[in-house]
Every structure is written in structure tokens, then in C-alpha cells.
Amino acid sequence: MTAMPLPRGPTRAPLRDDAVDVLIVDDRPENLLALEAILEPLGERLVRANSGPEALRHLLTRDFACILLDVQMPGMSGFETARLIKARERTRNVPIIFLTAINVDEAYVFEGYSVGAVDYIAKPFNPDVLRSKVGVFVELYRQQRRIGQQERRLREMELRELELRHRAELLEQEAQTAEELKTLNEELREQQEALERAMTARNRFYASMSHELRTPINAIIGYNTLLLDHIYGPLNEKQEHGLQRTHQAAKHLLELVNDVLDLSKIEAGKIELTMQPVHFPALIDDLFVTVRPLADEHQTPLELECDTTSDGRPLAIVSDPRRVRQILLNLLSNAIKFGRGKPIHVHCHTAAGAIHGVEISVHDEGEGIAPDDLPRIFDEFVQLSNSQQLGGTGLGLPISKRLAKLLGGDLFVESAVGNGTTFRLVLPEQTGGSHHLRTEPRRRDTDGDEREVSREVARERMRDDGGAHAHEPSDRNDPAPRRVESGRARV
Q1: Averaged over 112-131, what is the pLDDT?
Q2: What SS3 state is found at 99?
Q3: Res 252 pLDDT > 70
Q4: For helices 396-406 and 237-268, what crossing angle results, to 10°?
């Protein structure tokens, strides 16, 4: 395009306090410089664009009072750019002034107006006239913005008036129904007491049913293992696939039963704690061995950093090592499953907050948790969308939170979408309070039934192996061979 001469007009003016954006589009830098010199006295913010695509990118993020658009540009012409601007709801009402030094025929002028231009100016032009035209559109934009602000203030005043009227009506109703509120409060108290009794009965039922269900579930897992190991004969591909799916479903059901049993014990205040010295990083090193198969499956590196005491000794507390392992195993399993194969960082150090003891943080580099989901992360049976895809009972984190409090500590979560998630387990130097150390009431010996199933499975295997196994399984809840994971892999 032909370069425009620099005007000798007014000198540069400072931006107005209520300055608006004006977009100038031309593929020649000298033309952009000339337009800036012409429009600077208006005191508005002038935004440059060297092409149609660059102008469209500006329009995606900013609002403009007016657009000065060159017609003849390489690549995307001014007419094509204008059509795209007018096709978008947010920008279709922005005034466009076409500037050209070549396309001055009536056909080009008509096309410019047909694509939505408000003016079509041929170069060279009078700088004062162009400045005045742009000034008119800028002032119209500023007035429209003021009208919009006034409308918003008017709506806010109407809402405020409605709120005050509604509040006055509520106060009047409260004054008239004081006696009704008293009656309702009494009914609510009675319902709360009934709910507490029902929850107590529910917890007893959960505990009883969990024990009753573990025996047949463990039997299913054990005999499935014998079938998958071809103890009772060979299987075809479909049979083996069906048994594997049944095996996984039974393991998941056992996880749920175990979690429900733990939850019922905690809610009933009948969890049993055994206080022993717990050393770090020894406990975490042991857990790394436990979760190594899961980490290898997800190709996830595990990293550990553990501080020492001032005299160089490992960190140690007095707590229940089994429950500490249970909490950290759940956190590590979750981090591996949701960490997208990136490194899992575990850091243990002396707690410096209100709880004096040790703090263990587990950080993953996964997708993170949305702010709206964070308050629900420790609620029972709550599963986020990604956790539903990877499976789980929705009880691992609630149980971990309650166990942490039971041990005198707490469990915290910090997360940002795209930056991963960090769980911080804080435990006191010594778990105190005799009210934690309660034993369970005696119930029918379902563990004995499970041991009998375990012995029967072992006998079947010994018969198949010709008596190669010289002993029966020890008393434990898993009746299947050691390679079968029928324990409690938390989700």
C-alpha cells in the first residue's frame, strides 16, 4: 500500500483517565505510525495490528471503540477480516472504517459497506476529518458504556430494595412465629436424637455385616485363585477372562467391606490403637516396596526426602504404626493413580505448627483438584469424575482423615488445577489420651471361618502339588496364596 505522509498536526497528548481502545490495522509500519500521529491527540489507547489474523487475536481479548482497517493487505484482506469480525457476536457492533489508496472504485466501496463498514475513506485523506470521525465513534462507545454502568447500578439498587423488603417481611414473620420456631426446635432435637440412635444401630449393622461378608468373599477370592492357577484343570480364554473379572470384582468388594468396617469402628469409637515407636524414613521405605508394583504399572518414579533431628538421628514418634501405614498407603496409592506417570515426591520433616511432631507430605504432579471439589474431598463415598474412572470406594480419604485425628494429628490437602495435589499428614510426637485405646466387643468368630476357608484352599493346592507344601496358612484374613492381593489397597 502507499505510505501515508506524517501529519504536522497536534503534538502527543496524554491518555485520558477514561481512555478506550482503538484498533489500527495496516501491513505497513509507516502507515501505522502515521495513524498513531493523527489519533494521538484524542488521548485514547491505540493498539497496532500488522495483519488481519493479528487484529482478530486482539479482538478475542479486548473491547474496541473503533477499528481502522486497511483494505489491501497480503494474506487476509481487510474485507475478509471485516467479515470475520462481524460474524462474531461480541464484535459485530464495533464500527469499522476502511482505509485504502488503491481500491476506490464504486464496486469496492459497495463491498466495503456490505461487509459492515461504517465509512470508506480513500488515501490521502484529511487528518482532521479522520480524527473527528474516530472521535465521534469513541464518544458514542463511551456513552454506551456509561449507559451500561447506569443500568447495572439501577439493577443493583432494585435488587437491594427487593432484599430490604424481603428482609423486613422475614423479620415480621419471625416475630409472628416465635412459638412455632420453639416447637420446631423441639421436634428437631427429638429427630436428632432419633438420628443418632439410628446411626449407632447402622454402625453396629455395618460392623456385623462386614465381618459376615468377609468369609464368603475371601472364599470366592481363594477358589478363583485355584481356578486361575489351573488347579482344577485347564481353562479356555473366555473362562479365564471371566474368572479374572470376577476376581477383580471380589477384591474390590473386599476393599469396600474392609473400609466400611473401619469407618464403623471409628464412628463407634471402638478402633483399637497399639502405641509403638514409629521411625522415619524406615516406615516410608517399607511402603515404597509395597506400592512399587502399582508405581511400575503407571511408570511413576517415587522420590523421598526425609530430614533428621538436630543431632543427626532419624525422626521418630510414638503412634500406631499400622494406622500410620494405612494413611500413607492410601495417599501414595492415590498419588500414583492420579499423578499421570510423573514423579511422586514424599517429604518428612519436623512439624513446626500447632502440633509438635512430624509432618509427611505426599505431592503428585497430576491434574489437581478443582476448588469446588476440595471441601468434599474428605466426605464419605464422594468420588470425583477422574476417580470414578480409576475405581475406588470413596472411603479411603475420609478414613485417613479420621484416623489422623484419632492419632492426635490431622490431614490437610492443597491443590490447584494443573499444578498437582499435596496431602500433608501431621502427627504428634506422642499420641496420648486413653480414650483412644478401646477394644472391640466380642462377636462371632468369623475370622475362624476365614481361617477354615484358608486351610481348605491350601489343602486343595497341596493335593495338586503332591504335598509339596509342608504347612497350612497362618491365621490371617487373606485365604488366597500370597500373590493374590485381597488386602486393603486404598483408593
Answers
A1: 87
A2: strand
A3: no
A4: 30
Strand order in 421-428's β-sheet? Answer: 302-306, 344-350, 357-364, 421-428, 410-415
Q: How many residues does the chain have?
A: 491
Average pLDDT value for the chain = 80
Average pLDDT over residues 390-418: 84
Q: Which of 488, 356, 362 is nearest to 425 (CA)?
A: 362
The whole-number pLDDT of residue 467 equals: 44
Choose the CATH number for 187-263+445-464 among 1.25.40, 3.40.1350, 1.10.287, 2.40.128.
Answer: 1.10.287
What are the boundaries of each domain within the chain? 21-145, 187-263+445-464, 276-436
* Topology (CATH level 3) of domain 21-145: Rossmann fold (3.40.50)
- Phi (first) and psi of residue 58, to 5 degrees: -60, -40
pTM, entire model:
0.46
Going by pLDDT thresholds of 50, 70 and 90, the confidence category of residue 431 is: confident
Element (H, E) at 138: helix 127-176
Amino acid residing at 151: E
Using left for φ > 0, alpha for ψ between -120 and 50, and beta otherwise, residue 394 falls in left
DSSP 8-state code for residue 281: T
Query: What's the average model confidence in pLDDT over 461-479?
Result: 44
Q: Angle of helix 446-464 relative to helix 178-228, nearest 10 degrees?
A: 20
| pLDDT(392) > 70 | no
CA dist 223 and 246 (Å) reads 11
Q: Cα(119)–Cα(45) distance, rounded to whole angstroms?
A: 21
| Cβ density class 45-63: b for 16+ within 10 Å, e for less | ebbbbebbebbbebbeeee
Contacts 24+ apart (CB under 8 A), 100-109: 100/1, 100/70, 100/71, 100/72, 101/1, 101/2, 101/72, 102/1, 102/2, 102/71, 102/72, 103/71, 103/72, 108/71
Provide the CA 143 distance to its chain's centre, in angstroms: 42
Percent of the chain with pLDDT over 70: 78
The answer for 368, left when phi > 0, alpha when psi is -120 to 50, beta otherwise, is left
- Cα of first residue to Cα of last residue in the chain, in angstroms, is 66
Q: What is the DSSP letter of 40?
A: G
2.40.128.110, 1.10.10.10, 3.30.565.10, 3.40.50.970: CATH of 276-436: 3.30.565.10
Q: Does 478 have pLDDT greater than 50?
A: no
Task: Check residue 442 and report its DSSP letter.
Answer: P
Q: What confidence score (pLDDT) does residue 230 get?
A: 87
Mean pLDDT value across residues 83-106:
86
Angle, helices 78-87 vs 52-61, to 10°: value is: 20
